[in-house]
Amino acid sequence: MSSNSPTKLSLCFILFIFTCMQSETAQLQEAKIMAVYLQDRTRGPNTTVVPIAGIHGKAWTYFSFGTVYCADDPITEGLEESSAQIGRAQGIFVISSLDGSIAQVLLSLVGTNEEYSGSTIEIQGPSRQLEKAREVAVVGGTGKFRYARGYVTFETVVLDLANSYSVVRCNITLEQDLYDVYRPE
Ligand SMILES: *[C@@H]1O[C@H](CO)[C@@H](O)[C@H](O)[C@H]1NC(C)=O
Ligand SMILES: *[C@@H]1O[C@H](CO)[C@@H](O)[C@H](O)[C@H]1NC(C)=O
Fold this sequence. Notes:
Elements: H1 6-27, E1 30-41, E2 49-53, E3 68-76, E4 85-95, E5 102-111, E6 120-128, E7 134-142, E8 150-160, E9 165-175, H2 179-182
Antiparallel strand pairs: 1-3, 1-9, 2-3, 3-4, 4-5, 5-6, 6-7, 7-8, 8-9
The structure holds 2-acetamido-2-deoxy-beta-D-glucopyranose (2 copies).
One 2-acetamido-2-deoxy-beta-D-glucopyranose binds at residues 44-46.
Subunit structure: Homodimer.
Keywords: Apoplast, Secreted, Signal
Subcellular location: Secreted, Extracellular space, Apoplast
């Protein structure tokens, strides 16, 4: 067989592409944009997260497979609920692993203040609920965050069960190439 057999050629081609991909990945630089806080209430007049569907005849909880939640959390600049509101975290999440430990998150960070109004960051992927820091992908954005890609981490930093209140810190890390476009002051 000749050494230029189609199989060998295509293998070379695949290796070539793989090498290119590797060097591109190596060039990616991260830029931590900011840490923001999601203010979460699951009961009372100011509830921001509600279960909207689940398996018939079973309890709808954060750890029962098939439960769907809808959320509209205020996003604040600081940990305190009274600190400046910069946006809303709006979307849905579904308990997506049979053992209840993973939630599939479809969440938009929607800017509402002067600086970020009209801009969004799109978050999508599995969140390992039992981990201290849950990492989920940033898959896109609009406005100041057009073409955004990166990841966020979610960490529960306040858990006040008596008042059904919690605060989740969301650290947003995006690819450096875009950073100059929306570098915060
Ligand atoms: C609900 O929100 C309103 C307006 O921000 C506030 O005045 C009120 O104290 C809140 N109620 C509770 C139970 O948190
Ligand atoms: C998120 O950011 C805060 C503040 O900068 C930092 O203390 C914390 O360790 C970060 N969390 C993760 C998971 O990187």
